[in-house]
Amino acid sequence: MKVGFDAKRYFHNFSGLGNYSRQLISDLSKYQSNIEIVLFNVKKANSNFRVFHKSKINPLWRTIGIGKSVKNSGVNLFHGLSNEIPIDIPKNIGKIVTIHDVIYKEFPNYYPKIDREIYHLKTKWSLKVADKIIVTSNTTRDNILKYYSVDESKLLTVYQAVNPILYEIKKNRNREVVQYFFYHSTFNHRKNHINLVRAFGLTCQQHNWNLVLCGAKGNAFEETSKEIENLGLGSRVTVKTNVKNEELFQLLADSSCFVYPSFQEGFGIPLMEAAVLNLPMIVSDIQIFRELTNNSGNYFNPNSPNELSKLMLQISSNLNDYKQDYTEILKKINSQFISNQLFNIYSDLL
User: Fold this and answer.
1) Which residues on neighbouring strands pair with residue 214, listed in sequence order?
2) How confident is the model at residue 343 (pLDDT cuts 50, 70, 90)?
């Protein structure tokens, strides 16, 4: 079985979609010896896998133009890893697409109009032509059915695996004396850093925990920084940007509680990373987080800093009282389990 993958984000994106692509392909290579992996990239790249690229840079190659390379590669199947299937993939090649979310439909104000239109057209086309549609959560599945007309039988939920480094860190965990809440995500408005900072400010004088925020600079970074300054929290809130995975995972492992205040997610890999480390969590009361925590989390209205602050105070005062069982969800994000799911999906199309 020879499977081709859209590898633009595999090579060039170093956050969510890139991590998803690299982990999925790595796990397939490790656990599925019957699969030959072929990557399609916009330019030449070094890799242990066979890579097809365009000799002359063409920004539209992934949308229309890649089909000739796919045909010449001899792949049986093509898997678009980020909501997109190129227009000119030959008809005799099986087509799979991963749809991560349709948040641009749920929260259109977070996206420029032109971006919303492009996302919509690409997703609509992919849903139409894909033989199988992988969704990373039942929540995303429900949202697709809400906004698009699609054959429900084509939708298959396959969760995301986390970086295996986390399992090694868990074995050698050495908790720091300083206790702190931790959140890592790009500083975008949808990620809701502002309300987290405000919530921390409401009760931080009643406990000695700090707050650590990690993530790439986005459209809410300056506003978040100013809010920290305005509330006089500079000595209690640490902000780190451009943090490499090793440091990020260690900061997560050494924390006392993971907080996830996001307004909406298609999955929520940071939540799963915290689950691997068996951390207590405080999470937004949104459908995806209810799904991933099996309704056993500490939930708050993401629009209410007051609700969040009360939970932060409770956990910092009585940490040992908060026990959460992540057994079931950890089974579903097991790398070998997921690679087996994918192998079965690919096999069904051949």
Assistant:
1) 184, 240
2) very high
Higher-confidence position of 276 and 177 = 276
Burial of 149 (0-12, 13-18, 19+ CB in 10 A): exposed
Give the confidence band of 296 by pLDDT, cuts at 50, 70, 90.
confident
2-161+334-349: CATH topology is Rossmann fold (3.40.50)
pLDDT of the residue at 321: 80
**CA dist list (Å): 103 to 18, 262, 266, 345:** 18, 12, 7, 25
Q: What is the DSSP string of 5-74?
A: EE-HHHHH--SHHHHHHHHHHHHHHHH-TTPEEEEEESS----SSEEEE-SS--TTTTTTT-HHHHHHHT
Using the structure block, give the residue that is written with the tokens 């330019």: 43
The beta-carbon contacts of 150-155 under 8 Å, at least 24 apart in sequence, are: 154/130
Give the C-alpha distances (Å, rounded to integers) separating 318 from 145, 175, 184, 295, 322.
42, 17, 23, 21, 7
Domain 165-323 is found in CATH 3.90.226.10: no
* Nearest C-alpha neighbor of 221 from the set 248, 239, 204: 239
